[in-house]
Amino acid sequence: VKMAGDSRFPDVNTDGSEKNEETEIVVNVGGVRQVFYGDNLNQYPETRLAELINCLSGGYDSIFSLCDDYDPGKREFYFDRDPDAFKCIIDVYYFGEIHMKKGICPICFKNEMEFWKVDLKFLDDCCKTHLSEKKEELEEIARRVQLILDDLGIDASESRWKRCQKYIWKFLEKPESSYPARVIAVLSFLFILISSVVMCVGTIPDLQVVDAEGNRMEHPTLDSIETACIGWFTIEYVLRLISSPNKLHFALSFMNIVDVLAILPFYVSLTLTHLGAKLMELSNVQQAVQALRIMRIARIFKLARHSSGLQTLTYALKRSFKELGLLLMYLAVGIFVFSALGYTMEQSHPETLFKSIPQSFWWAIITMTTVGYGDIYPKTTLGKLNAAISFLCGVIAIALPIHPIINNFVRYYNKQRVLETAAKHELELMELNSAEGKAANSKSELEILAREGKEDPFHSSRLKVSHSDTFIHLLSEEKHYRTRLQSCK
User: Are strands 32-37 and 69-71 parallel, antiparallel or unpaired?
Assistant: First the structure.
């Protein structure tokens, strides 16, 4: 294997070992040549490049077990790998750590590190974070694909009631599954809007009626509309509860708790109206009913179930607790400082409106948030100067955390769109591969039948590839191809 007179590779000793410290090897990765020395590679003897030092004494079998090709004339090892990732990985031999360049797929880079047998612990923390984020995205894509496939799949071993539960759940929870499901989602959205409008319109005095005791109450027509809306919400909630796969998780979900709070006041007030009069005074019953009617505002939060924008906004606020905390801290410090200054500076005026520092808190709040109701205001020159500085500081304090919150919103919204598109593309690719596999099997069967001199009366149906007869079978069959999702993994 060794060329005589080549100074780059030292002679092999009689016991088969080389002088590794003086060994020089040439590696060609994707057309990029690199020269390495044994003293650098032996720092990490378990890596693939370090194993190349001792592979020459093992013959061609040992060489080709480590590389794709080898040129004895040039003493050059060839690898059909990504040269950009390789340039980053070899930094471990010189700096003891690896940084992933921008533009390289983190999952592919991890696969390259595994090929070169370099441990992930050498990857810098910032790059590990990027890698973990990409893994989470792929897991989310796989989860969405699996959910869609589960919806499309039908398990013959399941009971009729179980299949009925799945159908109802998909019908009410997944509007994109079918046209009737979209119609139900639109109707639910309209009922939420109608009930919210009725709640507001019912407070207009001109639309209210007077009962026998002279008390104003909502118009009977509005009550009927309200009852119809509550009936819809009740049926919808009960059906979703019955068909949910995990009823405990369903009951404790935030949006489902909102649904209960939107329905419960109607039935409690109805119970108090008919039965409460026997247990307590009528005035107390009316006060309790009015208090419960206020809880009807919770139904407006039901819109979040049908609006991806509201869900994205909620997630962005959750991810922005730190920025919101900074905003409240800035405002709290400013309110305390400027209210104390305003109270002190206004004491010299005989008609001062600043009676105490706690009362001045209200002035500081409406000033720093640039509301300015005008019910309390400074009258001295120093007080006006303090007010001017306070609302300037308030504008700055509010504006500073807004940009990170907007970034979180845009990032999450774009990420959800990318994940949704990736899941759809993955399904399309799986369906395409399934169709190709089905067509190839049908073609081979026809060739066998032709050689045997037989005719297949159902050849047209076998060649026909549809969404229903090939897409689901793909999950249970052994696949010899790779989808894009599997390639990234």
Answer: unpaired
Q: Please give the structure tokens belonging to residue 260.
A: 């209960």
Lowest model confidence (mean pLDDT) among 13-27, 132-146, 399-413: 13-27
What pLDDT is attached to residue 337? 94
pTM of the predicted model, to two decimals? Answer: 0.54
Beta bridge partners of 217: 209
Residue 77, phi-psi category: left (phi > 0), alpha (psi -120 to 50), beta (remainder)? beta
User: SS3 of 421, please?
Assistant: helix
Q: Is the dihedral of CA 367, 373, 375, 381 positive or negative?
A: positive
Alpha-carbon torsion (13, 17, 19, 23), positive or negative = positive
Does residue 483 surpass a pLDDT of 50?
no
d(CA 198, CA 230): 12
325: burial class by Cβ within 10 Å (0-12, 13-18, 19+)? exposed
Integer Cα distance of 407 and 412 in angstroms: 8
Compute how many other C-beta atoms are within 10 angstroms of the C-beta atom of residue 315.
16
Mean pLDDT of 83-87: 90
pLDDT per residue as tens digits for the range 230-259: 899 899 899 989 988 888 888 888 788 888
Tell me, what amino acid is at 374? G
What's 303's DSSP letter?
G
How would you label 254-275 residue by residue, b for 16+ Cβ within 10 Å and e otherwise?
eebebbebbbebbebbeebeee
DSSP 3-state of 82 = coil
Q: Helix, strand, or coil here: 37?
A: strand
3-class state of residue 32 by DSSP: strand
127, with CB counted inside 10 A (0-12, 13-18, 19+), is buried
pLDDT average, residue stretch 413-423: 76
- Inter-residue contact 86 to 93 (CB < 8 Å): no
Nearest to 120 by CA among 91, 97, 101: 97
Report the distance separating Cα 93 and Cα 44, nearest Å.
8
Residue 156 one-letter amino acid: A
User: Look-up: residue for tokens 């471990």?
Assistant: 92
Phi, psi for residue 446 in degrees, rounded to 5: -65, -40
How crowded is the C-beta side of 378, counted as CA atoms within 13 Å?
27
Helix ranges restricted to H, 202-301: 220-243, 247-252, 254-271, 277-279, 282-294
Rounded to a whole number of angstroms, the CA Rg of the chain reads: 36
Sign, CA dihedral 458-462-466-469, equals: positive
- 27, β-bridge pairs: 34, 77
- In whole angstroms, give the CA distance from residue 71 to residue 32: 15
How far apart, in Å, are the Cα atoms of 289 and each of 186, 198, 257, 292?
31, 17, 21, 5
How many C-beta atoms lie closer than 10 Å to residue 115's C-beta? 15
Q: Are 108 and 85 in contact (CB under 8 A)?
A: yes
